[in-house]
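Async update (no meeting this week)

Hi team, since we skipped the sync, here's where things stand on the single-chain job. The sequence we agreed to prioritize is pasted below, unchanged from the tracker. I ran it this morning and attached the output directly underneath so nobody has to dig for it. Comments welcome in thread, and please keep replies under the output.
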Amino acid sequence: MKITIAGKTVLDSTVTKVYIKPKINLRDTVLCKGKPLLLDCKTPGMRYIWSTDETVPKIKVENSGKYWVKIINRGCSVTDTINVKFLPGTTLNFTSEMTFCLSEENKVLSVKPNSGTKIIWNTGSIYPSINITKEGTYWVKTENKNCGEQVDSVHVKLKACDCEMLIPNSFTPNEDNRNDYFFPVLQCEYSFYTLTISDKWGNVVFITNSVNGKWDGRFKGNLCPEEVYVYRIESIEKGSDKKTPRTGHISLFR
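Output:
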């Protein structure tokens, strides 16, 4: 700068610095619980003051609430606020394996979806719950615009919880109407059943496929001798594909 006063010229100078005003644009966000949100100022080299008392350019938040940040560049500053809402994701809490009793009326797998969640099971069902009719591996996939895609699976087993057979170890077929027949007491229904009785030499003396079948201690109408026999029972409970064998000994007395 040059100034002339009374014929005298005076020179002077000044320095002007221009600082850039920070820019930030935080947008309200809704997302799934369990996925942290990264809040990024995207303006390096400045001072930062967050509502969380952090002083870094980026912070992670995991809880719903209102967050603000103040960015300072020398004498210039700007403040912005964001509302964050975390939604609970679809509840998929299967264990690797589950067992249902065959006698249970309601053998159900279910999930708890959020509103707007699409569901698909490997059975083709699009509903939150499915009924289990057989053993196997089941998986479910859920999709939500806020929570993205979630997948879970479980292997299901069916068990005869109260289907144990009561099998006697002796009987007395002497026609006194007391313990004259050998038969297991069945407590469940079976889609397949066979009872085979053999003597100590392995010769079959009785066989039946009827759940009501009983051995009267005879073979082809003749009385069998008093000795120990071997029984073998094979059965498949209704609702299962698994064949269960049972073997043991039965003593015949008169």
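Quick observations from my side:
The chain has three domains: 2-87, 97-159, 170-252.
The mean pLDDT is 86.
Reply here if anything looks off.
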